[in-house]
Structures are given as C-alpha cells and as structure tokens.
Amino acid sequence: MANIILHKADSRGNANHGWLHSRHTFSFANYHNPERTHFGKLRVLNDDQVSGGMGFSTHHHENMEIISIPLEGDLEHKDSMGNLTVIKNGDVQVMSAGSGISHSEYNRNKDKPVKFLQIWVFPNQKNVKPRYDQITLKPSDRHNKFQQILSPDADDAGVWIHQDAWFHLGKFDKDFFTDYVIKKKGNGVYAFILKGDVTIDGNVLNERDGLGIWNTDKISFKSNSQDAEVLLMEVPMNE
Fold first, then answer.
1. pLDDT tens for residues 171-224?
2. Short-list 96, 176, 88, 175, CA closest to 128
C-alpha cells in the first residue's frame, strides 16, 4: 500500500519580508519544521513573490540542483559564469551548483511582481562543474497530459539535472482522468497544485496543496475543475 503525506497550502512556512513573500513547503531559512525537512531528494519547494524592481542580491550555492519555474512576470538572472538572462512564464531554468556558483535574481519590472517556484534537489554527484541552462516550453503540450520538463538525460525532453528525477507540468479540463506511472523503482512523487482542484489517489487537493506518494508504481489523477494546473516531481526516496 502506498505511503502518502499531505501538506495543505495554509500549513506551509510563511516569510514576508516586504519586498519578498515566500511560502515554504519544506524547512528553509527561518522556517524550521523537523517533520518537513525534505521529501526524498526534494529539499526545497518555495513559492516566491518578489515586488517590482526588487530581488535577491548575489549569493553562493554548492552541491545542489536548483530549478526555477516562473509563473508570472520576468525574472532576471546573473551568475558568476557570465550568464545574464531573463526567464518568464513558459520557461524552466536549471543550475547545477556543483563545486560552487554565485548568482543574483531580480524582478525585471518596476511596476508588477514576479512570481516563481524555486526548487532544490539533492544531486547524485558532488562537486561537478557548475552548469546553467534554460528552455522555453510550449504550454499547449501539457493540455490534458503531463509534459516532461526535467529528467536525468540531456537528450530527453526538458532540462536535465544530476539526479534520477523527472518533473512534469499538466493543465487539465474538468473531469479529465489519467495515470502517472513511476519511471524508476523506488522513486516517489510530490504533486504541487498550481491552480484549481484535483483528486490524486483519492485525496482531494486544492490550489497550492502538496501531496507526496511513495511505495507505489503509479498514481491516479482526476481534474475537478477547468484548467487545473499541476506540477509533478518524481524523485528518489532513499536517504
């Protein structure tokens, strides 16, 4: 029988710094919950909103796979490898911090917020050469199906990371049914509801709820509202 853990949206950590409002699914910065430190190799899931013209000044990362998924607005990225880019809704950005990388992130616009998900995954290799990449996806490719946006394979769809993980995005019509089959034995899936209401393995979920499932071969999915949007993150569960 599958193991399940449910994280309701209002149970997340809440950090409001004025210019930054962040909801933390797992322990991060000043939010610490010993029962919510990670889900398998998924370490951080931050739901961030940055005010116009504001952002994160240059800071350092090591030995972490860092994925950013913009939801609204324009996020400017600058790093120690010489990259200066802007990502927006429809894009996916990845950094393999490896042996060390410094970067900054700013809201490109002065008059409106930028909203994005910041996700950290523990790597399966340490001290790799730092790497940056971003891609632009076709939202139409996720209508009533799970569009792969990340994998362990540089030749596969989406960006890639140093971990046996697969991420998918989907946008669904009301009453649409499907299954998601686990790609690697021993992996689990963490589902994060971006919009609308869905049912996963009999569990009713609402906007910004999270549900982790492991010890199963597949999960059942049903959309309960029109244009429900879901992010599925399949990651290894071994410590």
1. 999 999 999 999 999 999 999 999 999 999 999 999 999 999 999 999 999 999
2. 96
Give pLDDT, residue 239.
Answer: 66
Out of 3.10.580.10, 3.10.50.40, 2.60.120.10, 3.40.190.10, select the CATH number for domain 139-236: 2.60.120.10
Phi, psi of 227 (to 5 degrees): 65, 35
Please check whether residue 93 is in contact with residue 68, taking contact to mean a CB–CB distance below 8 angstroms.
Answer: yes
Categorize the per-residue pLDDT at 1 as very low, low, confident or very high, splitting at 50, 70 and 90. Answer: confident
Structure tokens at 37: 């430190």
The residue type found at 148 is Q
The count of C-alpha atoms lying within 13 angstroms of the C-alpha of 19, restricted to the half-sphere facing its C-beta, is: 10
Looking up tokens 């989406």 gives: 158
For residue range 63-110, list pLDDT tens digits in order.
999 999 999 999 999 999 999 999 999 999 999 999 999 999 999 999
At residue 85, what are phi and psi to the nearest 5 degrees?
-140, 165
H or E segment and range at residue 221: strand 218-223
Write the CA distances from 101 to 80, 84, 90, 120, 239, integer angstroms.
Answer: 6, 14, 25, 14, 25
